[in-house]
Amino acid sequence: MDPKDIIDGIKDKIGDMFYVGPKGVIGIDIGLSAIKLAEVIQVSDGNFKINRYATVALPEGTIIEDEIQKEDEILQALQEGIKELNSGNKFACIGVSGPNTLIKRLQLAGGTNEEIEDQVTWETEQYLPFPIDEGNISFSVVGENQGGGVDVIIGAVKKTVLESFRDLVERSNLKVKIVDLNAAATLNVFETVMGAEVSAKGKTWILMDLGAQKTQFMIYKSGVMVFFKEINIGGLTITEEIQRQMGVNYAEAESLKISGDGSGNIPEEIVDLINQVLDTFFAELKKTVDFWVNSTSEEAFDGCVLTGGSSLIPGLPEALQELFETEVQILNPFTTMSYNQNNISEDMINDIAFKGVCAIGLAMRSIPK
Length: 369
Ligand SMILES: Nc1ncnc2c1ncn2[C@@H]1O[C@H](COP(=O)(O)OP(=O)(O)OP(=O)(O)O)[C@@H](O)[C@H]1O
Ligand SMILES: [Mg+2]
Known about the structure:
alpha/beta; 41% helix
């Protein structure tokens, strides 16, 4: 065995022993294209190591937005993923997203805890797409605002959505300890990896998760998420367009989009289709940014960070750079996080870097910062 591996192994054990409180959780991100599972350990203060990771592709159409369509297929993939992860940990943190969830910064008048809770309830009610008593709401105070009140971030999910995902995971013999919003998990990794560069006072960053069914768009200012929007355009929009226009099935269209003709060339007609979808996507992004700029009279961004499988679309980071007039980079968890080479093979690294961020953030959830 390589001495470095032995040292890594020992570090893992020490990390585990020093860790008091609830033993970590397995982060589970059930995305449209795949289920991703991650186990993360804290090796020293503020330093994290990805200990285990697994991903299992989901067949077409298992989820539509936040509704489970093909339960058996997801359950099977989940069980496969848990087996592949091969962790002794039985606790999970699952992520939710979609139209029946809400993550929002609110500026409240403040006061006693009870008064703040009342304000949260009253304000949240106005943004929820379902009656408040049908949801699970949580919030955390993130700072003070100019008016002498408090800024809070609220998270909410409709109970039926939460329960449907929790039941699936519990049927796979894991205990769901925490349910978190996918966006909050992604944000957690963004903050941990990018550190002071993005959190500095007065700095404004864009963070985007470019997934399959949706894009999560966030603006992060002076260390707080100040704006969030879920846009219903993602990699699937392109895949479906290829299916429709080229008369091929889902798997064939995915393969044409990602690998092209087999020798790495994306045919001209596919590039045209991708660009058509991107035009609509960019128009939507421009509208979103303009809305924010107009309502805050903010002018410029200090940078933009991307994650999610669709950030692999050739030329996309460069095009976004032009659109946002700021430098665009990929959120690479490995810039600050190490990984366990005994459990994670080299060929997984790229997959984790682009598609695993949310699961990593979910896995970090019970680790105190
Ligand atoms: N090399 C590539 N080029 C273009 N698109 C890619 C590439 N690799 C992956 N994708 C696309 O990325 C998407 C999958 O990314 P990701 O795993 O982040 O999404 P997801 O989490 O399953 O979706 P969602 O978060 O929307 O539920 C798919 O649409 C896939 O086609
Ligand atoms: Mg995703």
